[in-house]
Specification:
Layout (H helix, E strand, L loop, with lengths): L12 E6 L6 H11 L5 H14 L8 H11 L7 E6 L4 E6 L7 H8 L4 E7 L6 H12 L4 E7 L8 H18 L5 E4 L23 H7 L4 H5 L3 E11 L9 E8 L4 E3 L3 E5 L3 E10 L2 E3 L1 E3 L3 E6 L10 E4 L5 E12 L11 E5 L2 E15 L4 E4 L9 E14 L6 H4 E6 L5 E7 L2
Parallel strand pairs: 1-3, 1-4, 4-5, 5-6
Antiparallel strand pairs: 2-3, 7-8, 7-15, 8-14, 9-13, 10-11, 10-15, 11-12, 11-14, 16-20, 16-22, 17-18, 17-21, 18-19, 18-20, 21-22
Length: about 425
């Protein structure tokens, strides 16, 4: 198995998977891991022992992920499982979330940082309501690349027509959503056709295997091209680097560059206050830097004595975020308890948390029909709605479509501290 190093690969691809019941998602993930030699030897030995005990001969690759099912049945909460593997060309993180309707919140969680979504469709059944839900959510969450994996082609006789029916329906729904055209791959996760190796049983398909497609998709680079966004996570005092006498200290502002890049000498603004300064120094545990790009965790020092605290957002002076105390957003309700207009809520965006109230429930969306129900009385678990929020103090945000890191937020119950919803700021 190739070693996995989260920080080392510029080409790291994060992708999520989704599928209706029995579409073969667990088998597909298992096949990807197995055929790319990413299954640890102890797990492989356990699968072989299981096959020997049950007299099946072939190992059941779905067991690589379906072990989570038993834990859920025992009351152990596992919302999203992350799988790591690598090939000679790229490293991957798979966010494996339950795909049933009642687990919409888990898909939202798993997809929030994904570069791609692999959505399974049973070649015999074609598009279902759940498939529509998964494609819609992937589009709503701004996942750049959507892959429709038409699975169980072996049970459809490897017929081109079966693949075409499923692909055509998914493509038409994408047009309805005004989404980019998805990628399509016909495969059999159980037998391995077109997962890692090309299938001789589908000569009519001339495209890449699923793994080859995933190895070729763009990832992460778009974040560097966007304007600088650096949420301040922590403020600390450290001895001055020049060894000044009398115990002189400097303040460092710690966090992760979510988008863009910054260099020593750059002009920056601190939001929501609007204070202006320049970058005096950048560093990591390994030492000083001249420049830092998206997804890099750093310590930053500024040239002027200004007030900067956790929750502030550092941006390029020439490309600031929007500062506002009102949000219009699309929101997915996570909590088992319904929305309560009398409850006290908090909004957390980046590292800033402020008190908030729901000014209006504009509409609730039926994902199956894409019809909106105006002015609903409440929101229940997995409901998706357009809302307006009023905040007790201003925050700095972007539209979610422009920057997922600064356009996403969570809603917290102020009494229980539980996360009850996640939202995306509208443009």
């Amino acid at each position: 198995m190739a070693p996995f190093d989260n920080g080392a690969a510029a080409g790291l691809l994060r992708f999520t998977t989704a599928g209706s019941v029995d579409d073969g998602k667990s088998s597909l993930i298992g096949r990807l891991l197995y055929d790319s030699n990413a299954v640890p030897t102890d797990q492989l030995a356990a699968l072989e022992r299981h096959a020997a005990r049950h007299g099946t001969g072939d190992i059941d690759l779905s067991l690589l992920t379906d072990g989570l099912t038993a834990e859920r049945e025992q009351g152990i909460t596992i919302d999203v499982a992350y799988r790591y593997f690598a090939t000679a060309r790229r490293k991957f993180i798979i966010a494996d979330a339950p795909g049933h309707e009642q687990y919409t919140r888990n898909m939202v969680t798993g997809a929030s940082t994904a570069d791609a979504a692999v959505i399974l469709v049973d070649a015999r059944k074609g598009m279902t309501v759940q498939t529509r839900r998964h494609i819609y959510l992937s589009h709503l969450l701004g996942i750049p690349e959507i892959v429709i994996a038409v699975n169980k082609m072996d049970l459809a006789g490897f017929e081109h027509a079966a693949f075409e029916r499923a692909a055509r329906a998914a493509a038409e729904f994408a047009v309805e959503l005004e989404a980019e055209r998805p990628h399509f791959v016909p495969l059999s996760a159980k037998l391995g056709d077109n997962v890692v190796s090309p299938s001789a049983r589908m000569p009519w398909y001339r495209g890449p295997t699923l793994l080859a497609l995933l190895e070729s998709l763009p990832a992460g680079r778009a974040a560097e091209a966007r304007p600088l966004r650096f949420p301040v996570q922590l403020v600390r005092r450290v001895p001055a680097a020049d060894g000044s006498p009398n115990g002189q200290q400097v303040r460092q502002y710690l966090g992760r560059v979510e988008s863009g890049r910054l260099s020593v000498g750059d002009e920056i603004a601190v939001l929501p206050s609007g204070a202006l300064t320049r970058v005096r120094a950048l560093s990591t545990l390994e030492g000083p830097l001249e420049t830092a790009a998206a997804r890099r965790s750093i310590a930053l020092e500024v040239a002027d004595e200004i007030d900067i605290a956790r929750g502030d957002l550092i941006v390029a002076r020439a490309a600031p975020a929007r500062v506002t105390d009102r949000l219009q957003a699309t929101l997915c309700w996570f909590a088992d308890e319904p929305y309560d207009p009398r409850a006290r809520y908090l909004v957390k965006c980046g590292t800033r948390t402020v008190a908030a109230r729901f000014a209006e429930l504009v509409h609730r969306l039926d994902v199956a029909t894409l019809l909106a129900e105006p002015n609903p009385d409440s929101l229940a678990r997995n409901d998706i709605a357009r809302v307006r929020l009023s905040l007790a103090s201003p925050i700095a945000v972007d539209a979610y479509g422009a920057d997922r890191a600064t356009g996403a937020f969570i809603v917290i119950d102020a009494e229980t501290n539980a996360t009850v919803a996640a939202g995306m700021v509208d443009g």
